[in-house]
């Protein structure tokens, strides 16, 4: 024998005393939530312990425009205007009003004049207009529902105003969705039996404090539960998937002996570009690609020595450098700016070398946002500062990291203005049948390390995290990720490596 | 990056390789797509010489060892000179030029040359501002040339074939509109740089050529001008062009440029720097002593002409078409590419420093743990937002001076950086599809402010809870529980904030300092968002609190 759940017992006890009931009435009388009641009904129906009457109908969603038509449709306003005299057909006449008045045969147009017809005169009695009548019914229904922009009508109620509903839908005043609703629920003989068993049977449903304390449980028989029975869905609070993924990545680096660092999101062009040897006239330093700021308009670069060193590097390498360009603030376009700070901060002094550093953070691109493009992305940057480091060390570091994420990587030559030599790591994607780029890196140019005050060698790399992340969580639209829809956050796929 | 498209059959012919696409990645470029006989390749900005089919093929052939690098020289002087006037100095001071003879074009090879000229103007030339080139039929040029600038002039344009004044070209033609920015000067009268021969204007630089010197597939000899604002690049592009024509079997003749100050220079210069390299230097960037490095063969496969060999040291000559090789480091990069990353062993870096998390990250994780324990799901919103979302809907005042504003955004609805997290969470509640209540979400993240011209980046935590019974007490309980779990005690003082119901809003005070706010969200704000159930909210500045946790 199976025992009843608390919700089932409550529902059946209530139904025992009434002939039949609606879901709303049950909620009100038992104090159960609607979700709980619907769940209980679903279970009891399967056991034939309740009888459920279904009612078919439609749910109508009402547009804002329709709310304004309750007292008068534009075509009605038009014929009212034409009641006494014809009017010139010009731009002053509302297009919607005109097209429906014509369609209804209320007006006629001749020689550029618009006038009312006999049929139109009859329509001056507003109550004779089917669309108007239908809308009134819908709006009055909506007023009794929880949401004043939604109305539920049964098929029966719809039948009499069907054609008008189609017209309202055609002009997009309402949208229609079929809906099945529980009209009434009543208890069956099987249900009564189950309930009495629950209350009289000496076999026990729910174990309670009394039974445990007194030891009366020794005399009782515990009824078996149907373990296959459906249970209610509950949702634990969870981390946001992007944060969860970042957490995973930072743990990998920390476990490999790296020190985690953070840097400013709002940067001077000096740190974002100049310190990394990006020429001041480089196309990425255009407003089309990078977010520049109107407040504040300037960001000072404090250390004068550093400024001079970097200016010298630019004048030698690119033949030009300008202080104002350097002090323009930007939203950082890469976290390599944090690596530049790190070279300056950790490149000299009492550190033990080699020293390994990484940073993960948001970066910004001036993009037109759509399902494929975001203006805010995530990047990871790492460096190792030390003597005698080379590309063999870089290869190993990246191989180890990506192996932890399940990738076997391959390296090829590439070019970035701040490294020499440069490389790119990619993996073979079975699905696309192609090599996909994961990461760029290289040895930081001597000019840069010198300007930033170290005589050590620095190997560096940078990688976008978003595309990688989407691979693990399996979503197709990037924008979904930051909508924070509660249902999506609750039910999103776990991150699988 | 710039992409170039060729017929694959032409690339095969030009490079002498059966599968040139397999070598592209090995020289640092990337095949972007292959469709039928067409191949599109991404070229990195340090190698403008490879934007051309001749230059690219050359590098591919060297890498596979099927071609040996050569020295380049002109066949003689063309007898043509360019006199530079004094007015052009203000707008576009530098010009170089070359003459090419004995060319045999096909439709495709002419198209490749024109595409190359366009691409180099776009990339290295920064949309023709820094550099542009013009290709003319030498037969149509009469006598010597003058490069100067004037306030007005007349020409028959290449594309329209109509006589127009310079001002009309700028105002009415496609090229004029696109490139007029390259010669416009702030608050000064317009000066148009031009090139003319003894009879006519042959080019309005860098906008358009004249129709009179138009080239076709039948053209046998060319005059090419390169103009710009950077003397090194202008000279290098003359070298790049000269080398590509010599490699393709034509003859190149030099052109004299007479500067206004009397100096005379002849282009192309075709100079070749020599650089000394040794296996030791390559080993240094590899990071260990690689066995059996054959520096000589690597240099040849990178395109360097071999000079003197002295002990372990080798002198290599940098080809004139390379504009990016300035010192031995640049050469070693090429040698490494020729050696191949696949041949470099992976060597782990051992360090005695332990890995270490950043202080705030760890602290934020602690807070996150507690909030999740309290039933709050983590949200993660964008930092970029706009005044309406951030202030208006929240019933808050917008103080322009304190907010980071964006100069220009391609996407509508982006104008400022957020200065608080609550508005985003309110949006999340409003935008969520119908779900089981309660809705409880929180976020930890950066917020931004401008104070006396300085940018303040602070770390905040905010949470909201929406359901029919949400009230002040719930918010307060949650804050106390969260702070308790990180070892902090707070007091609550009556406060006010236009986003909250008056009298149901409190400041969170830690050691006499207000660090945050909690309360019941004002129904006017709920209406603004279209939220239909009560909402409580909290926002707290976590900056500095991690220090308290440590003690």
Q: Would you write up a description of this structure?
A:
The complex is a heterodimer of chains A (497) and B (551). With 497 residues, chain A is of the alpha+beta class. Chain A has three domains: 1-60 and 133-234, Winged helix-like DNA-binding domain superfamily/Winged helix DNA-binding domain (Arc Repressor Mutant, subunit A, Orthogonal Bundle), CATH 1.10.10.10; 74-128, no CATH class; 242-491, Bira Bifunctional Protein, Domain 2 (BirA Bifunctional Protein, domain 2), CATH 3.30.930. Chain A has 20 helices and 18 strands. In chain A, a hairpin with a 4-residue loop joins strand 15 and strand 16. In chain A, helix 8 crosses helix 9 (155-170). The mean pLDDT of chain A is 88. With 551 residues, chain B is an alpha+beta fold. Chain B has four domains: 2-63, Phenylalanyl-tRNA Synthetase, Chain B, domain 1, CATH 3.30.56; 76-267, Phenylalanyl-tRNA Synthetase, Chain B, domain 3; 274-343, 2-Layer Sandwich (Phenylalanyl-tRNA Synthetase, Chain B, domain 1), CATH 3.30.56; 359-550, Bira Bifunctional Protein, Domain 2 (BirA Bifunctional Protein, domain 2). Chain B has 16 helices and 28 strands. In chain B, the strands form six sheets. In chain B, strands 4, 5, 6, 7, 10, 11, 12, 13, 14 and 15 form a ten-stranded mixed sheet that branches. In chain B, strands 19-23-24-28-27-26-25 form a seven-stranded mixed sheet. In chain B, strands 1-3-2 form a three-stranded antiparallel sheet. In chain B, helix 9 (295-302) crosses helix 10 (328-339). The longest helix of chain B has 17 residues, at 231-247. Chain B is elongated, with a radius of gyration of 33 Å. The model of chain B has no long low-confidence stretch (mean pLDDT 93). The chains are: A alpha+beta (497), B alpha+beta (551). At the A-B interface, helix 12, strand 9, strand 11, strand 13 and strand 14 of A face helix 8, helix 10, helix 11, strand 19 and strand 21 of B.
């Amino acid at each position: 024998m199976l025992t009843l759940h608390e919700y089932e017992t409550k529902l059946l006890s209530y139904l025992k005393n009434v002939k039949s009931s609606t879901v709303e009435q049950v909620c009100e009388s038992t104090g159960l939530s609607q979700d709980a009641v619907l769940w209980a009904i679903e279970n009891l129906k399967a056991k034939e312990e309740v009888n459920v009457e279904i009612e078919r109908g439609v749910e109508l969603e009402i547009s804002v425009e329709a709310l304004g038509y309750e007292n008068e449709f534009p075509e009605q306003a038009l014929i009212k205007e034409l009641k006494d005299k014809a009017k010139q057909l010009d731009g002053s006449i509302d297009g919607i009003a005109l097209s429906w008045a014509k369609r209804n045969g209320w007006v006629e147009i001749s020689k550029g004049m618009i006038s009312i017809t006999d049929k139109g005169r009859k329509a001056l009695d507003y109550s004779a207009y089917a669309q108007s009548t239908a809308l009134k019914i819908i709006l009055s229904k909506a007023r009794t529902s929880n949401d004043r922009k939604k109305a539920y009508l049964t098929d029966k109620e719809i039948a009499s105003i069907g054609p008008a509903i189609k017209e309202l839908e055609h002009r997009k005043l309402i949208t229609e969705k079929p809906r099945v609703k529980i009209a009434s629920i009543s208890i069956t003989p099987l249900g009564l039996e189950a309930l009495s068993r629950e209350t009289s049977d000496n076999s026990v449903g729910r174990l309670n404090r009394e039974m445990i304390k007194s030891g009366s449980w020794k005399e009782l028989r515990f009824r078996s539960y149907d373990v296959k029975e459906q249970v209610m869905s509950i949702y634990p609070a969870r981390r946001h998937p992007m944060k969860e993924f970042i957490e995973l990545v930072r743990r990998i680096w920390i476990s490999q002996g790296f020190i985690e660092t953070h840097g400013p999101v709002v940067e001077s062009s000096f740190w974002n570009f100049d310190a990394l040897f990006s020429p001041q006239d480089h196309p990425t330093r255009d407003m089309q690609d990078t977010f520049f700021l109107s407040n504040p308009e300037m960001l000072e670069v404090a250390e004068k020595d550093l400024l001079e060193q970097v200016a010298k590097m630019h004048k030698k390498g690119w033949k030009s450098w300008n202080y104002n360009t350097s002090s323009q603030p930007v939203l950082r376009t890469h976290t390599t700016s944090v690596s530049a700070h790190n070279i300056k901060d950790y490149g000299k002094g009492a550190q033990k070398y080699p020293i390994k550093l990484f940073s993960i953070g948001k970066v910004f691109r001036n993009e037109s946002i759509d399902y494929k493009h975001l203006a805010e992305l995530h990047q990871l940057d790492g460096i190792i500062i030390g003597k005698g480091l080379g590309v063999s060390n870089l290869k190993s570091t990246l191989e180890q990291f990506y192996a932890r994420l399940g990738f076997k990587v391959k390296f090829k030559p590439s070019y970035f203005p701040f490294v020499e030599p440069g490389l790119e790591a990619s993996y073979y994607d079975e699905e696309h049948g192609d090599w996909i780029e994961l990461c760029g890196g290289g040895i930081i140019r001597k000019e840069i390390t010198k300007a930033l005050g170290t005589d050590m060698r620095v190997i560096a790399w940078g990688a976008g995290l978003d595309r990688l992340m989407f691979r693990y969580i399996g979503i197709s639209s990037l924008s979904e990720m930051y909508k924070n829809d509660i249902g999506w956050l609750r039910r999103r796929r776990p991150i699988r490596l | 990056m710039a992409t170039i498209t060729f017929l694959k059959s032409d690339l095969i012919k030009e490079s002498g390789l059966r599968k040139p696409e397999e070598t592209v990645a090995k020289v640092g470029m990337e095949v972007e797509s292959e469709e039928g006989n067409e191949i599109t390749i991404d070229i990195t900005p340090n190698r403008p010489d490879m934007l051309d089919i001749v230059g690219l093929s050359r590098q591919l052939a060297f890498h596979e060892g099927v071609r040996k690098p050569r020295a380049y020289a002109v066949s003689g002087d063309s007898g043509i000179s360019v006199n530079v006037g004094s007015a052009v100095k203000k707008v576009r001071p530098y010009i170089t030029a070359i003459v090419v003879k004995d060319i045999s074009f096909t439709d495709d090879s002419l198209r490749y040359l024109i595409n190359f000229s366009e691409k180099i103007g776009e990339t290295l030339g920064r949309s023709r501002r820094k550099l542009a080139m013009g290709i003319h039929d030498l037969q149509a040029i009469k006598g010597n040339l003058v490069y100067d600038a004037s306030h007005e002039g007349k020409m028959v344009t290449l594309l329209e074939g109509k006589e127009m004044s310079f001002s009309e070209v700028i105002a009415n033609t496609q090229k004029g509109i696109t490139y007029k920015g390259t010669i416009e000067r702030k608050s000064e009268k317009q000066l148009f740089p031009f090139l003319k021969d003894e009879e006519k204007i042959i080019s309005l630089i860098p906008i358009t050529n004249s129709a009179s010197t138009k080239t076709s597939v039948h053209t046998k000899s060319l005059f090419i001008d390169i103009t710009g604002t950077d003397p090194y690049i202008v000279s290098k592009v003359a070298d790049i062009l000269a080398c590509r024509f010599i490699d393709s079997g034509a003859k190149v003749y030099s052109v004299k440029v007479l500067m206004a100050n009397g100096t005379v220079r002849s282009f192309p210069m075709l100079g070749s720097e020599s650089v000394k390299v040794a296996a030791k230097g390559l080993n240094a960037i590899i990071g260990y002593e690689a066995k059996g490095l054959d520096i000589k063969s690597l240099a040849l496969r990178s395109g360097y002409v071999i000079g003197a060999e002295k002990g372990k040291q080798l002198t290599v000559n940098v080809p004139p078409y390379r504009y990016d090789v300035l010192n031995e480091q640049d050469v070693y990069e090429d040698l490494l590419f020729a050696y191949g990353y696949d041949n470099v062993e992976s060597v782990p870096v051992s360090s005695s420093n332990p890995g270490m998390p950043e202080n705030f990250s760890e602290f934020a994780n602690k807070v996150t743990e507690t909030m999740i324990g309290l039933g709050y799901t983590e949200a993660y919103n964008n930092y970029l937002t706009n005044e309406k979302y951030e202030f208006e809907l929240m019933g808050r005042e917008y103080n322009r001076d304190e907010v980071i504003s964006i100069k220009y955004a391609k996407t509508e609805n982006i104008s400022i950086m957020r200065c608080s997290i609550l508005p985003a969470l309110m949006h999340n509640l409003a935008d969520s599809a119908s779900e089981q209540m309660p809705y409880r979400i929180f976020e930890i993240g950066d917020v931004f402010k401008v104070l006396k011209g300085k940018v303040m980046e602070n770390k905040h935590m905010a949470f909201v809870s929406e359901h029919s019974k949400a009230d002040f007490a719930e918010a307060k309980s949650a804050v106390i529980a969260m702070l308790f779990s990180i070892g902090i005690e707070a007091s609550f003082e009556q406060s006010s904030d236009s986003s909250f119901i008056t009298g149901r809003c409190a400041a969170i005070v830690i050691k006499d300092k207000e660090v945050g706010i909690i309360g019941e969200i004002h129904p006017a704000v709920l209406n603004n968002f279209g939220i239909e159930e009560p909402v409580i909210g909290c926002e707290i500045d976590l900056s500095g609190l991690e220090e308290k946790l440590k003690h």
